[in-house]
Please model this.
Amino acid sequence: RRMLRLVESVLSISRYTDAVDAPRLAGSAKRRQLQMREFDSVFTAIVLCCDYVKGQELAARQTSSRDYGVLLQTIFETARRYKIINPEKMGDTYAKLVYLLQDAAAPWAEEHLEFSPVAPVRTVHARLEELGAADMLSDPLIATATQTIAPEPGKARYTIEREIKAKERAIETLAARYRGAACEPDELRRCIYSIGDNHAYLYQARDPVDRVISLLLSHFGGEGGAGEGGAGEGGAGGGSLAIELGREGARLTHSHARQHAFVLQTLTLWREIANDMFRLWHLAEQDLLDPSNPYEQRDTGQGLQRVQEAPRTRAALLELLRATQLKASGGWVGSSLVHLGDSNVPNALLFIDKYSQVEHILNPLLATLDALPKLHADDQKIGAWIDATFGGVRALTRAILRDFFRFAFDGSGGDNFFDAGSCIDGRLTSAWNWCSQLPEKPFYIVFTLAGFTSFDGSLGGS
Model:
């Protein structure tokens, strides 16, 4: 924790990316000179905070940064690992850290520094193998010990307490069962808690996608089938999900059945990405910090960006896409084009940033829908307004979902069809476009009454 607070504090006051990624320095020798000065400043600040005397020696050039290479690797690895298991943290510093390490790991920089500040991220599996306790991962109790205990609607308090006690017993049993001469129970507990962090992430990032898929199927039927509103094209009462190019901002033309399939397939892909996000994040860092994979500074239309190939991340994403396409009945709808390492998604960091946002789109939507019955019941005036304006809670829920499933997946949001449309990246662009237009929707006031403030969650990076 001390190392983590240290690196966050140092990076929060550093202007690394603002300085070295200034357009006037692109491709110039002055940029490398500035980068070396920035490396020196950051490394010296960290060593100084860890040991004042040694930091003074480093600042006075009596020692070299390479003398503290292991310390710097450990501190930076700790921060990277923390970010991966806590995606909502380090919003203003993580991108800055990655870009600094990306530059410091480059062959020319490593030659001058005489060390690399990049070390592989430590994993639970690797640590348990070091401790000789890797068998714990296949123990039947590990599922109970790492489960996420969620306060689901209608779940009794005694049920939650029973699950908590069962989880605590499982943790203690595993810690006692696999302890050894070089393996203390506390170390095993930390490993178990780390696995639990992954399950907690899935609860907040993957499970909302599952819920939205369930809402799509329950309100608008199976793929091309009938929902609760009736049969055929989405049922009666304005239940169709059909969209038409040029109408209400749509850039695609889909019948109800085709739009239903398009939304379902998109949500399924998002679900698979969220389910595999930790692996994708590891691969993204490997692509970003690979010295043999240099980046190019390019004006992408959204400012000067670091455009870099991401072969590992792309291969993993294509694998998930193929698996999703195999599940799609009736064939894949839309384009399979993946933007990664180009002007749309310049590098793997931007890919992670984009797909980390899915939960920040869906969770406010779900929170509002969950709040509707209570809003209707607790305030007579609000309840009467909902009934008069929308026809009741069920009709309002369906209206919100119909608008979301139509216009958050209509190919809009980009400057041209290549930037948005039906490509893999464009689907998420359209969803963000819907978020930006929410204040113009007739049901926006319901979101505010339910406590909605904004869609957020950016990784940051300035």
Summary: Residues 20 and 31 are 6 Å apart (CA to CA).
